Fold Histidinol-phosphate aminotransferase.
Amino acid sequence: MSTTIAPQPGIMEIALYQGGASHVEGVSEVVKLSSNENPFGPSEAATEAFRRASYELHRYPSTDHAALRRAIGEVHGLDPERIICGVGSDEIIHFLCQCYAGPGDEVIHTEHGFAMYRISALAAGAAPVEVSERDRVTDVDAILAACTPRTKLVFIANPNNPTGTMIGGNELARLAAGLPEQAILVLDGAYAEYVEGYDGGAALVDMRQNVVMTRTFSKLYGLGGLRVGWGYGPKEIIDVLNRIRGPFNLSNAALATAEAAVRDQAYASKCRSENSRLRAWLAEALAEHGVPSDTSTANFILARFASQSEAEACDDYLKKQGLIVRRVAGYKLPNCLRITIGDEASCRRVAHAIGQFKGGAR
Ligand SMILES: *Cc1c(COP(=O)(O)O)cnc(C)c1O
């Protein structure tokens, strides 16, 4: 082994990302409720656009993503010039860290925040700073108190993953207004589409110079496998991010499929209301079995158990029935399991199995 070939500082502190499991040894009929995917998949219009793109595989894709940005702009009432598209919103998070944080800088994320913030901060050589939440809810005062002259980025997922909780517009505005001058507030709206009437923070972006919003096609639009996300922010910041964006970061197929998906708001709306209905049903069913959860605004619920060992025993029990949910000890929630809202049959199966587990049928 060479002693002089070494990665950049921070890289070796990154633990390899653990994705949601999708197989159970010896069980063929599994229901995957571990990655917050849309159980109904993408809209038929999106699938059709993907099929059509297969005839253009020899062509290089657009570098400026103009058609997709225009579609997003029309649907959300946003200026396409201030939209950037990436390989999932993960790539936008990465661009932000690479462009705005480096050695000596601090990147704030919340206690139970999404793993990518820490990974991207470390990849950029910056120091991730974890700030406590209040009963699994983003705590604006704690974040403001943690800011220093070195704070460059503050990441908030709203709704948050894996807690499912969110904070309101006044709190977001107070946070943006209270940050030190050199810091950018990033509002990760991966689950914003699930909240009726919520703009993901777009209006706050328009009102200020220090707020960026990220969004994704991976959740409500059912395109996690395609890898498309986007960001919306002040023109100056979007121009900076575009400098490090690979010119062909999104494929023809990704661009065309995402455009068709965002234009099919009738389907998006159907998925949103089905999710709300089943989420309310599942939360209540679990509560009746003695498993509480915070009111979720996303497409999953965070089920709380009495202890880590009970949560793990329940996870094992579910797994034996082919029901794959997510352990979240890595998010400092060892006594919880995150359960994606599946279709009606899956929700019923999960509720039934957890009822059996709690009833002592182990
Ligand atoms: C799923 C998720 C994303 C989306 O990631 P993509 O790269 O767009 O698939 C972003 N942030 C949070 C909090 C998420 O849970």
User: Anything to note?
Assistant: Residues 110 and 299 are 20 Å apart (CA to CA). The radius of gyration is 21 Å. The pocket of pyridoxal-5'-phosphate is lined by residues 36, 88-90, 114, 157, 161, 188, 190, 216, 218-219, 224, 229 (CB under 6 Å). The first helix runs from residue 44 to 53.
